[in-house]
Automatic annotation (TrEMBL):
Gene: polX
CDD domains xref list: NT_POLXc, PHP_PolX
Keyword line: DNA replication, DNA synthesis, DNA-directed DNA polymerase, Exonuclease, Hydrolase, Nuclease, Nucleotidyltransferase, Transferase
UniProt xrefs under Pfam families: DNA_pol_B_thumb, HHH_5, HHH_8, PHP
Name of the protein in question: DNA-directed DNA polymerase
GO molecular function, one term: exonuclease activity
Organism of derivation: Actinomadura parmotrematis
Domain Polymerase/histidinol phosphatase N-terminal: 337-415
Domain named Helix-hairpin-helix DNA-binding motif class: residues: 52-71, 92-111, 127-146
SMART domains assigned to the protein according to its UniProt record, in alphabetical order: HhH1 (SM00278), POLIIIAc (SM00481), POLXc (SM00483)
Ranges for domain DNA-directed DNA polymerase X: 3-313
SUPFAM superfamilies, alphabetized: DNA polymerase beta, N-terminal domain-like, Nucleotidyltransferase, PHP domain-like, RuvA domain 2-like
Names of required cofactors: Mg(2+)
Length: 571
DNA sequence: GCCGTTTTCGGCCCGACTGTTTTCAGTCG
């Protein structure tokens, strides 16, 4: 179920958008935007909070607290309703067209009565923009194109897709740059990516820009300068290439990694110290450069430790850094095992032998094979097939002295919380993952009970991809997550962080909520092929965004500690 | 509208690029 926080944050954000269209004070607008982010990221549910509690949320003062109270009491915010009456909410959608901001959107509405993207397209066709002040022939063409981009590209791509594209750009341009790397939301490992940002260091940007625009998948150059070039790609995201002098590398990487909200905070810290921070470095008032070569140096001169990119969202990392309380987040190198994988016995594409060989090559110390159980009838699993696989796993173990093979299964959680086999058969597995694969639209109270029942099963060790979402295709199942997490913590059941780019499940915001309730996590690839094992970086990135340390993640633990965790369920 | 190791008022991040504006506003990140 959508938390009150998310709906309230959306309303505050809408208030900011509508005020920016009607020409409200820019600083007031920014205050609303900051508060919207803070409310969305606040771990406690705002439903039921009183004014004093609401004001304790950072960036929420008296005025916004009252608006939040208005929301929790009436389901809406009066000022938003009033502004909607003045400006149709659909005018907001005009600012979604690249190149159209609040000022021009308002102008189009006031002068031509345009209140939606469709109306804008029609006005263009009828030539009604001719002669409107500020809209020359070039603007018309850009808006026309912007509408097309908005309509066909949809919006964001999965992090895996963006990572592949970024790798191709970096590889192609590396010979022409002193340094080159991806930055932006991809470096922060957001689950979906709008634009791919690539940063290069060179004293001679021209050859880089020329090679960049000549890449085979580039279809159009949107903006081309000496320092920045933006391109559109064939059925992919836009790519920005920024080129900076080599001695600005650290400051530039810090800046272009973002997030924008994080950067605002770091620049505010600089201003308070009488300094100026830009992508070229940290400078004194007289222009003397204090730091710029590395990110560590830049953060250091601001009095901060280096902050992992995955935390840079202004959701508490600045405060934690100032207090010396940043989490020592889990890394790919910390991962010692994998508790969820498939073979061609069910829907995997590689044999048991190939998967085990790949797990050994990853340098894991333990690896669980967890093929699907009989309730997913399409995979035609039987008791006999599962026991035969177990025999084969035990035989294979002899060939892998450095890798402990675990035999497990991925159970199906039925609508009532039951799983495929009875306790006797389940007791034969080393580890059991249990996941939801159907009945996604159940009543939230039923889904909550369903997941709690699965946690209470003494043989279920891990809840696989707990929300069952598929990014861009299937919404999360609705449940009272805090209740589910309490049950997981109480019963010693780990929540999975599934590494598939279209799952990333649990999502980072739910990870943070679960963490506060004492839950442990299993970062698992759910690999169906050898290649899928590379997805571990996306799951670890998601775990980092959830502020997880190695201690929170059972798949970083040495085998004896893991075995204790698994054993505690049944005793 | 928020906030305070320059405090309760006066600030609030910084730069690149575009188009049409003859000196810069709007947009974007």
């Amino acid at each position: 179920m959508a938390r009150a926080n998310d709906e309230a944050a959306a309303l505050i954000q809408e208030l900011a958008d509508l005020l920016s269209i009607t020409g409200g004070d820019a600083f007031k607008i920014r205050a609303y935007e900051k508060a919207a982010r803070a409310v969305a990221g606040h771990p406690e549910d705002i439903a039921g909070m009183d004014l004093a509690a609401l004001k304790r949320i950072p960036t929420v003062g008296e005025a916004i607290a009252k608006k939040l109270l208005d929301y929790t009491e009436t389901g809406t915010i009066r000022q938003v309703e009033a502004l909607r009456a003045e400006i149709p909410a659909s005018v907001r959608t005009l600012t979604g067209v690249p190149g159209l901001g609040p000022k021009k959107a308002l102008q189009l509405y006031r002068e031509l009565g345009i209140a939606s993207v469709d109306e804008l397209a029609a006005a263009l066709d009828e030539g009604r923009l001719h002669g409107v002040k500020g809209f020359g022939p070039k603007s018309e063409e850009n808006i026309r194109h912007g509408i097309e981009v908005l309509r066909q590209k949809g919006d964001r791509v999965l992090v895996g897709t963006a990572a592949e594209l970024a790798e191709r750009v970096v590889e192609a341009l590396a010979p022409l740059a002193e340094r080159i790397a991806h930055a932006g939301s991809l470096r922060r490992m957001r689950e979906t990516i709008g634009d791919v940002d690539v940063l290069a260091a060179s004293d001679d940007p021209r050859p880089l820009m020329e090679a960049f625009t000549a890449l085979p998948f580039v279809t159009e150059v949107v903006a081309g300068g000496d320092k920045k070039t933006s391109v559109r790609t064939f059925r992919g995201p836009d790519i920005d290439l920024r080129v900076v002098p080599p001695d600005s590398w650290g400051a530039a990487l810090q800046y272009f990694t973002g997030s924008q909200a994080h950067n605002v905070r770091t620049r505010e810290i600089a201003v308070r110290a009488g300094l100026k921070l830009s992508e070229y470095g940290l400078f004194t008032a007289s222009g003397e450069r204090l730091a710029s070569a590395t990110e560590e140096e830049v953060y250091g001169r601001l009095g901060l430790p280096w902050i992992p990119p995955t935390l840079r969202e202004d959701t508490g990392e600045i405060e934690a850094a100032l207090k010396g309380a940043l989490p020592d987040v889990v890394t790919v190198e910390d991962i010692t095992g994998d508790l969820h994988s498939h073979t061609d016995l069910t829907d995997g594409r590689a044999s048991l032998e190939e998967m085990v060989e790949a797990a050994a090559a990853r340098g894991l110390t333990y690896y669980a094979i967890t093929d699907h159980a009989p309730d997913l009838a399409m995979h035609r699993m039987t008791d006999a097939k599962m026991l035969a696989q177990r025999e084969r796993v035990r035989e294979l173990q002899k060939d892998y002295p450095g890798l402990v093979l675990l035999h497990g299964t991925e159970l199906n959680i039925g609508p009532d919380g039951s799983v495929d086999w009875d306790a006797d058969f389940l007791a034969g597995f080393d580890v059991c993952v249990a996941s939801i694969h159907s009945h996604f639209a159940q009543d939230p109270a039923d889904t909550t009970r369903r997941l709690i029942t699965a946690c209470e099963n003494p043989h279920v060790n891990v809840i696989g991809h707990p929300t069952a979402r598929q990014i861009g295709r299937r919404a999360q199942v609705q449940a009272d997550w805090d209740e589910v997490f309490r049950a997981a913590a109480r019963t010693g059941t780990a929540m999975e962080v599934n590494c598939f780019p279209d799952r990333l499940d649990l999502p980072a915001d739910l990870i943070r909520r679960a963490l506060r309730l004492g839950v442990k996590f299993a970062v698992d690839t759910d690999a169906h092929s050898v290649e899928d094992m590379r997805n571990i970086r996306f799951g670890v990135g998601t775990a980092q965004r959830g502020w997880l340390t190695p201690d929170d993640v059972i798949t970083t633990w040495p085998l004896p500690r893991l075995r204790d965790f698994l054993a505690k369920k049944t005793t």
